[in-house]
User: Which sequence fits this backbone?
């Protein structure tokens, strides 16, 4: 039985218990990332079931946290799985995200005496259906706002500039996603901009930094109404629900901003689920009919 493996990974550990507490899913006593990932998996499983019947099983694991990559691989091999399609749910490829997810997957396979055939899904930063899903999410959000934002800030997870200099494609793929989103929306350059968040440590990171740029937009450019979207995250997590919607919002408002709209990640939105399911179907060719 071919198995599709869906992976959502934490980008980095957070030491702030207060930050986690502010976004915690108290009803299920779990992180919103886990809740959303499960919802995504169930939604994709329904689509894949409709397309391929019982030929494909859909599951998920996490690079940091549970269910772990190793535990899922072990379970699947023990159940007789002979083919695994491994899908890191990072639209843009980075050595610190997609690559480490793949590393964890192959390390898990190394522990198995009976190894299934494996495929890995690549980056989908320019996939037309993914861009369409992003475009629709922006249009829905703008339709619900009384005063149109002056600019859309497209905020991506940051990384040290050194990584780009060493050949990491992440920065260029982020810029391309923004370009394609702008084309999909039919907007002018002044209506959209790219920034990078989650900066930490002593190194210089990709710029402009989101937390500083939103303040500059309000203070220097007079853009007091903004919207922020985070296309690098396939599911809302601490970097979006806490960092963007709390810390970055506070920076903007302290600089004179008066309207801040956070546009949620695509999560289990139907257009997103269909986009991911199409990518999965394409990568299953030759394995299932």
Assistant:
């Amino acid at each position: 039985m071919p198995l599709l493996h869906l992976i959502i990974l934490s980008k980095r550990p957070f030491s702030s218990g207060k930050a986690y507490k502010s976004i915690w899913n108290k009803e299920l006593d779990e992180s919103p990332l886990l809740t959303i990932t499960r919802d995504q998996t169930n939604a994709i499983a329904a689509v894949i079931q409709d397309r391929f019947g019982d030929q494909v099983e859909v599951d998920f694991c996490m690079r940091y946290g549970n269910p772990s990559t190793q535990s899922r691989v072990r379970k699947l091999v023990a159940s007789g799985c002979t083919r695994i399609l491994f899908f890191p749910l990072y639209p843009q490829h980075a050595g610190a995200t997609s690559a480490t997810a793949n590393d964890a997957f192959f390390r898990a396979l190394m522990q198995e005496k009976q190894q299934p055939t494996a495929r890995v899904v690549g980056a989908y930063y320019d996939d037309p259906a993914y861009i369409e899903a992003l475009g629709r999410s922006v249009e829905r959000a703008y339709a619900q706002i009384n005063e149109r934002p002056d600019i859309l800030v497209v905020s991506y997870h940051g990384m040290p500039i050194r990584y780009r200099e060493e050949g990491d494609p992440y920065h260029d793929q982020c810029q391309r996603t923004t370009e394609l989103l702008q084309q999909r929306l039919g907007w002018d350059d002044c209506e959209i901009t790219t920034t990078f968040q989650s900066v930490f440590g002593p190194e210089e990171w990709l710029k402009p930094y989101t937390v500083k740029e939103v303040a500059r937009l309000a203070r220097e450019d007079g853009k007091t109404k903004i919207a922020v979207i985070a296309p690098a995250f396939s599911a809302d997590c601490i970097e979006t629900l806490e960092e963007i919607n709390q810390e970055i919002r506070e920076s903007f408002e302290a600089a004179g901003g008066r309207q801040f709209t956070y546009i949620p990640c695509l999560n289990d939105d139907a257009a997103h689920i269909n986009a991911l399911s199409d990518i999965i179907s394409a990568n299953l060719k030759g394995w299932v009919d």
Q: What stands out?
A: Residues 77 and 114 are 7 Å apart (CA to CA). Residues 128-263 form a domain with the Rossmann fold fold (CATH 3.40.50.1400).
